[in-house]
Queue: 2 jobs
Job 1
Amino acid sequence: MSKEPAKRPLKVAILGCGTVGREVVRLLLTQSDDLRARIGAPLEIAGIAVRRSGRDRGDLGIDPALFTTDAHGLAVREDVDLVVEVVGGIEPARSWLVDALKAGKSVVSANKALLAEDGATLQEAAAVGGADLYYEAAVAAAIPIIRPLRESLHGDRITRVTGIVNGTTNYILSQMDATGAGFNEALDEATELGYAEADPTADVEGFDAGAKAAILASLAFHTRVTAADVYREGITEVTAADVASAKAMGSTVKLLCIAERHVDADGGESVSVRVHPAMLPRTHPLSSVGDAFNAVFVEADAAGQLMFYGRGAGGAPTASAVVGDLVAVARNRLAGARTTAESPYADLRIRTVAEALTRYHISLDVADKAGVLSEVAAAFAGHDVSISTVRQEGRGDDATLVIVTHTATDAALAATVDALRDLPIVRNVVSVMRVEGGEFK
Amino acid sequence: MSKEPAKRPLKVAILGCGTVGREVVRLLLTQSDDLRARIGAPLEIAGIAVRRSGRDRGDLGIDPALFTTDAHGLAVREDVDLVVEVVGGIEPARSWLVDALKAGKSVVSANKALLAEDGATLQEAAAVGGADLYYEAAVAAAIPIIRPLRESLHGDRITRVTGIVNGTTNYILSQMDATGAGFNEALDEATELGYAEADPTADVEGFDAGAKAAILASLAFHTRVTAADVYREGITEVTAADVASAKAMGSTVKLLCIAERHVDADGGESVSVRVHPAMLPRTHPLSSVGDAFNAVFVEADAAGQLMFYGRGAGGAPTASAVVGDLVAVARNRLAGARTTAESPYADLRIRTVAEALTRYHISLDVADKAGVLSEVAAAFAGHDVSISTVRQEGRGDDATLVIVTHTATDAALAATVDALRDLPIVRNVVSVMRVEGGEFK
């Protein structure tokens, strides 16, 4: 192949210099020769937008003149070709990126909250400016999952995406499973070890996983799904008893994000997208994803079952994904090309959680007398919920019934639980948890 | 976004109509609406090259006039835009693809043997014709591994790729592990179940895995690695005793393909690429990849450890990867763009297997008398091989020494084994096997 003349450097604006931004800078500096060879032109840092100037960032080895507090000015600056956004949050990040994209700058973003709430606005701005919008780092950090969904599986029909996409909650649940600890105890330990933030709400209430679920569902089903469309339940109500009950049936409790394709009664299709804790059989590949690791399990008609596994958070893994995207948009820029944006052409109806098909594991304290099982079974039958297994534990005053259902709508299952609570012979509904991954039992 | 005018169909030539070719045709027909939406133009089958005409292929629902035995003529035909090659083998596939690429047709190939032996010739032809060459299906079928290596991880420095990339051998070894069967017994069962071909040589001798190792190493290290550069050892010598011995130390035997980056004494870098059975600790994520599944484990400086898992063979999974690539090259064609080809710019030296750093598990029948361990240990020390663990099993005439070494060059380890064979107190070298995944112990 003929030697091509050296290309002018592509100039990169970096918005944000926290944990991820610093690692991006470090990769751009330490990998610069390889990046030049892979792209066909050098990448040059045009500037780094920071919240506060004057901090000592000498360890990065960057000319102090490159730091600025004017993120918007940097993002739209004439000489900037590519913009990296690792600030997070909806505003002002959205305004900066919209203006940068409209001005023709390609954007690499790790901002899951923004993409899940209003990815459409960014996509439209990218179309107006003829620019690329890449965001591999927004879900599961360095695990390549956006690109496989956006490109590799485009010849196939994806039926379900199930993910463990939040490291904090996975660490907490893994600890509860390993030690028998309760939620609060496990959370305290996670906080001490730096796996949970001082305010863990976004993680433990499932907001973080919900944003990622929206992004994955949009790509998998070519349908616009926003964070508001995702049914969300966190792990704060998961008890040591739930985890022990899961163990007893050969399962483990995981916070899952699930995006499923359904065929409706009229032959049309719809999707359900939800985040909630669920019991997963230990034979399911996701059940062995422990500690702070992430994994995404994809099912497609032709490809079958695929799993993507790795570290889903952290400065270096996230920066790896950002710089990988940067190489792609830089190559496109040099080729004068643009990657066709994902299109929400399928525009499938989004189901409410009530319509989602799921299974329940229900544990009841019951009076130990004749006819209990028959009354309980009648409550299920009355809502058209079919029982898969019943297990009676203990006797006398400590009698517990553990029931696992077949698949039914969440609405029917929730109504069944309400009916059980009203039965005089049911002293207490000890735990109710969804069961997933049934096909692996 | 404005409605764009309907684009003319892109015409696809399909070379080969075996298991994979038929599934490609099926996907193109059943997914045609989705494919048109994802690409922005319809795909139209221009022709299907078959070895023998006149066979009944009515079940495909294809106009019989589209079948031809002139594969070359079809591949270079004026109206053809894209060529899918699912024939396999070096020639005549290479000539067809070279001419098609030079004529500007983008190519999607599942031909691992050709890509591993002479990918460079295809890349050059693609550069001449300004065409794309995609081959996700050549390694691990539908598991997206080529695109992550080729694109997602481009911002990172990959240090090692370890894969289980042959389903036949993984099925055989999984059976040996589960049932204690010997190699021949497990092979017979695999043949009966259709997991092994009538002539299983390419699988059990590691040729298939070797070709995939060459392709993965080339992408991971930006260095031209061909099948001839890969050290290759099959699984025919793996005994039930080896598998039992692995079990005893909490490991399992897997046929691994390994591509590693090394830093040489002079500060330069080199790579070693090899395929051989090895003991892997059961705590390593690859150890739980059972039956005919495939998985590729990637380690990179910033991303850390990633794993990609799924069905690595079969008509439908392979076709999913082929059609996913077809969408990518079709989009490029419409955009007038071309994906920058992977470049072997790093051109790292390829180590011989003698230089590869590995660990050995050695099992010896020894005479049970004083001083045995000291003589054996001296043989290791004489070749600068450090011993990690020694375990003595049995007593008297049945005394067995099981030794696991620390990392050493394969040459030093092989020389140590030769020296052990020459020791009068060593009655028999029962088994010698490499040990991998040590960092997971």
Note: The mean pLDDT of chain A is 92.
Job 2
Amino acid sequence: MAAPREPEVIRDKAAMRAWSRRRRAEGKTVAVVPTMGYLHQGHLSLISAAAAASADPVAIVVTIYVNPSQFAPSEDLATYPSDFAGDLRKLASTGVVDAVFNPPDLYVRGAGRRAAATGGAISCLEEEEAAGDGHETWVRVERLEKGMCGASRPVFFRGVATIVSKLFNIIEPDVAVFGKKDYQQWRVICRMVRDLDFAIEIIGSEIVREADGLAMSSRNVHLSREEREKALSISRSLVDARTGALKGNTDCKQIKNKIVQTLTETGGQVDYVEIVEQESLVPVEQIDGPVVICVAAWFGKVRLIDNIEIDTRS
Amino acid sequence: MAAPREPEVIRDKAAMRAWSRRRRAEGKTVAVVPTMGYLHQGHLSLISAAAAASADPVAIVVTIYVNPSQFAPSEDLATYPSDFAGDLRKLASTGVVDAVFNPPDLYVRGAGRRAAATGGAISCLEEEEAAGDGHETWVRVERLEKGMCGASRPVFFRGVATIVSKLFNIIEPDVAVFGKKDYQQWRVICRMVRDLDFAIEIIGSEIVREADGLAMSSRNVHLSREEREKALSISRSLVDARTGALKGNTDCKQIKNKIVQTLTETGGQVDYVEIVEQESLVPVEQIDGPVVICVAAWFGKVRLIDNIEIDTRS
């Protein structure tokens, strides 16, 4: 790693865009790593991927913004962990981050006239806010946003696609890095970029795990020691499934049942276990091409997700 | 007007973006005028507005693309008029248009696997296309897209917001000009640009009318001479309503009833007559601030729209 270097902290949208355009005018590739803060080794690996994204000099922007629109009112927006000072130290220690974009709020708030609700699901943004003159534009990736995390978190991908569009329009990056731990999110963003013609290369960065296999997540901090131990059953069952599939156990119903059984026996509450095609996220019955097993499960009050890619042909 | 000058015709997305970035690097303001072709004096007035948009030299791109996703299968995509050679002559005659973006198709087509329909309304794009690997990302301006034209054309503004997002991402303009004849469309675009943080100034350009008052539209060509004569009742009734309002007749129910009566008596079939706040498009009962009266009506097989802004305080 390079020597420690303080990134510039930018809070204003116009200043952020001007910063980015200056870097681009200097011939630099602008790479963005969107985060919600409370950074861990997983995030730092995204930054390494950004640094390696181009042969040209890369100007790296890390965004730290907890996006209200991707949380439903019942979800954990209020308790989402944060440590901005700690985040800045970690970013400085990488020596490669040029700017941190940390805006106070990225949504226009209306005058308080509440419009008729348009559907079942609303986000924290809409709960606190009237629809009158406030934010009302949403980017929807209509097929990929359904199923898996989209089934149990109905506003999540709409909020993600929308905030990422906003960040893309503010920062105008050439490259953006997303973690494959949020596998469906990564595919949603890739599809959105293709469909809306954003001039941005999306890099999917591999999952970073603790020494014992637990996928890194800002939410892990909320796990008790006991819950954390139990939660190891997620990564273990995924690795076992992969090993089995490569040996010929490719029946998805069997594989899923076994994972559900393992997680349940260790005290987890399964949200979903799905085996889907890697790009389309369409469920498959038999593993005979590039697939990914995706899992979401609750341990205590913490919802964890994890996944493993498998390609029996490779 | 300047001397005639042939605009460069660009059909490829990457070439368009490269063209635009070169102009910007030269210090020019890039202005785009999105059209569906079959150009008339109304479009040319948008180009004049684009030319006047900045004190810097302006590079003007006119897009000509009939966007399938904003037409429902029941609508007139197949018969939408076109005359590319004539359009080019008209653009050359302005002497100020630098490029014409005329792509063959801007949507990714899937492999033919049809996903379950997600709602009632679909567009021509979705009818011809399976949802499998094809385009599935939509930009929705959820409140403004409802009502008026959105009520009778349920996929229209979704298609418009999406194609405009795509054109913005391909061309990366500094300025975009839209006609206020499509009043709701203009407001939808303004809101989308605000909500998604596009770095683009939107200019709303005034309605251009024939000598007899008919608002210019590519669809006017489909009117018979008799229908065209009858259709003048639209602009006449709007001007009468405005004159009346400025004299104190500000009761919206009365005004709307009178317009409906006039249009019906002259053989029109009214789709809607609405009096709404100019920015929010929320219906009002009394005219006591900046409002706009919007009308859509069929004359024969042609659906025409028109509107008039009124501000009794000015």
Note: The domain at 218-309 of chain A is CATH 3.30.1300.10 (Pantoate--beta-alanine Ligase; Chain: A,domain 2).
